Amino acid sequence: MTIAAVSTPRAAGGIAVIRISGEDALGIAEKIFDGKRPTQMQGYTCAYGRITDGTEVIDDAVVTVFRAPHSYTGEDVCEISCHGGIYVSERILSLLYENGASPAAAGEFTERAFLNGKMDLTSAEAVMDMISAQGRAYLRKAENVKSGHLYRRIAGYRDRLVTLLGNISAWIDYPEEDIPGISDSEIISELSDIESGLSAISRSYYNSQLIRNGIDTVIIGKPNVGKSTLMNALAGCDRSIVTSVPGTTRDIIEESIRIGETVLRIADTAGIRDTEDIVENAGIERAIERAKRADLVIAVFDNSLPFTDEDEKICGVECEKRIACVNKSDEEGKFDESRLHGFDSVIHISAKNGDISELEKLLSGEFIETADEFLINERQKKCLDRAQACIAEARGSVGNITLDAINIVLDDALSALLELTGERVSDTVVSEVFSHFCVGK
Q1: Which of 314, 344, 366 marks a domain boundary?
Q2: Average pLDDT over residues 233-238
Q3: Residue 437: which of 106, 8, 139, 123 has the closest Cα?
Q4: Do strands 253-259 and 262-268 pair parallel, antiparallel, or not at all (unpaired)?
Q5: How far is residue 337's CA from residue 412's CA, in Å, rounded to a whole number?
Q6: How many structural domains compose the chain?
Q7: Residue-number span of the structural domain to which 219 is assigned
Q8: According to the model, what pLDDT value does residue 274 have?
Q9: Could you tell me what percentage of the chain is helix, strand and coil, using 3-state DSSP and rounding each to the nearest 5?
């Protein structure tokens, strides 16, 4: 079946691209293209002409031909570049359907690339990561996966597992042959090393989520220390209400902010203090609970005031990463910094004067630089977890159960790795992966 779809966004623009892929791609394009015949064109060549519906000229266009197997999908592919705009592109797409093409499903072009061996499943998944990239770091890591970096890492451990399975099987199946045995200690050592390597890859899932979804960040502190002023300075607009009245912020105010290559999903919260106000107390409790679930807490302290019990309470809010910002650095210092404890960094800012460069510098590199060189999604993480669990079970059972039984467990581990790369994967999993793609890709 030959499929077609508009591969550019459905909006007005300078150019639109309609992609056709399949056995009849060039012949179908030829039916509506008045110019050089696509069926006679070499691969990687273009031709200028007009798109016509009978005698009616629809638009000027450039046709680009990619011949199988040297195309994105591995099939014959023809791309029509026309003037941008919804009506023009949709009209040309309708003509292609009238002449034998079928509408492409979500992600069907990339799915065909996977099924035709043009890329492994991890590389195919990285295509959507590249499309949704919001910064250089994200794009770089997605490109690493698309180029096969993750696949090669997994394939290395897969091959070692296959070799181990083969050695154990040969020793079991041909006991009378002159085949060197493999000791329990050798099996345990190899499984431990493979498990450790897979665990290192699996741990990158957390950093992948930070880069993909943004860092869940919460600003906490006493009233009037400058939390809302800092929120507005980071956002570059008046997102939070700023007054000299304690308790102005009573609920959580959230905003997505980009700082360098880092995207923060940042929340300004109610000032933490002792109060009889029921509504304000509810906001304070919500602020503390929200901070405990965050990836990053920015705790703001007032340089012009002494350290208090409320500051001590703020120091006790636990989180994955914590930064202490001593605000109002332009005022006389009365704050005792020596009592700050448990923070990853302590910096000085003046949010009111917009002097937050030290914080911005820290945030722009704090997470990105510690992240791994590739992205791991939830499906891949689950496959890694299954493989690790099987390997750990086999390693712990060496010497206690038969090698036949150990081989069965290790074969389950191998199946999990092969599912991760797409080398042994069900149609249901493949359909689920590509259902999240956009139509046209």
Answers
A1: 366
A2: 70
A3: 106
A4: antiparallel
A5: 54
A6: 3
A7: 214-366
A8: 65
A9: 45, 20, 35
